[in-house]
Write a structure and sequence with these properties.
By secondary structure, the chain is an alpha+beta fold. 19% of the residues lie in helices and 15% in strands. The strands form two sheets. A two-stranded antiparallel ribbon has the order 1-2. A two-stranded antiparallel ribbon has the order 3-4.
Amino acid sequence: NTVDTRLTMSQKTLPPAVNPPAFTNLPQLVEALRHEIPSRQPGGQPHTTAEVERITHVLNRVQLDPREWGQYTTFVKNRYTRTLVGYEANKFVLLMLCWEKGQQSPIHDHAGSSCWVKMLSGQLQETIWVEDASGKVVQTG
């Protein structure tokens, strides 16, 4: 038996991160995400485990002053809001999402795309839903 050691483009792992700096402003974060997140064609391959870990590591190092991100916040009584903060075609959309206490977003998916959440203030409760064998949407936790 021989083992195929070739990697396809979607299987390549990223080189290890070397102590990335803490990100203290949004333009710096957007630039880091442009560098760290590989391009994906719509409907293409999901991120590899290594890519997910690197992007998670970058977001864990974000330390933004509320004066920095506050300019992107919009709070509305009857619904949550989404404000565009950064964008790179075929890589990412960086949004500032704002909920008032007790607000919810409708059950939704992300159409096969990856999604990370970085809490800057407050608390968030996520409920995961799946479609069971009968087609009914049920809560998993």
